[in-house]
Amino acid sequence: MYGVDFSGARDAGQRIWLARGSIEENSLEVLDLFQAESLPGSGRERGLSHRALVSFIGEQEGGIFGLDFPFSLPQDLLWGESWEEFALTFEKVYKSPEDFREGCRSAASGKESKRNTDSIARTPFSPYNLRLYRQTYFGIRDVLASLVRDDAACILPMQQPLEAKAWVLEICPASTLTREQLPTSYKGRTPTRRTARITILQALEKRLQLRVATSVIRSNIVEDCGGDALDSVIAALATFRSFRNAFALDAAFPYHREGWVYV
Q1: Residue 164: CB partners within 8 Å, gap ≥ 6?
Q2: Which of 25, 75, 135, 185 has the maximum number of C-beta atoms within 10 A of its C-beta?
């Protein structure tokens, strides 16, 4: 089981963190924590690390991955007869992240609209918000479209889960923290932000059956001032909780096209 803190930055290989966990006695134990640039065939550059991440996901038969970027758009901004068609033609419609953001804003009359699942999960931003649009663009274009094209994984809940393939879920660390009434300001070098990371980690261990296997992993979570290492652990925990809850969702909403944020 993996949590992935994703990035669309040029040096994404250094910014993407993966937390690998194992279910032990109804708890999630974090066994490993690493950056995407350490994956086979990877590197610091965005395209290289994204391709390595796609390959890694496809190789983990039976693995479950939680990734923290929007998998889709609001219903009014979608096209095609299925989510798969949307993902596979995404790059043809939007040639660049800037084209994507401006196209969505134009189609929404300048508004930053959200999906039904964003409202339910209380995600902080629209998929094409200034802080998120690059992550959304490269996540859909480089990761999801590639996995769909290669039939290498099952993207939940838009696709049915198959035992022989990895399962990929959309998660949002901020939503998980909000649900647990924990601090959401923890990224930074100040002592206050470091203390916040410690507080969050301790609370997750106490409330949500999280375990950290080694002191080295714990130190990496706390000392990563960008908060990306912690985000990957929260992503893994949200993935674990969703698995334990049988991937429950509200069937009243158009999740087969808009997607679903597992909190």
Answers
A1: 61, 62
A2: 135
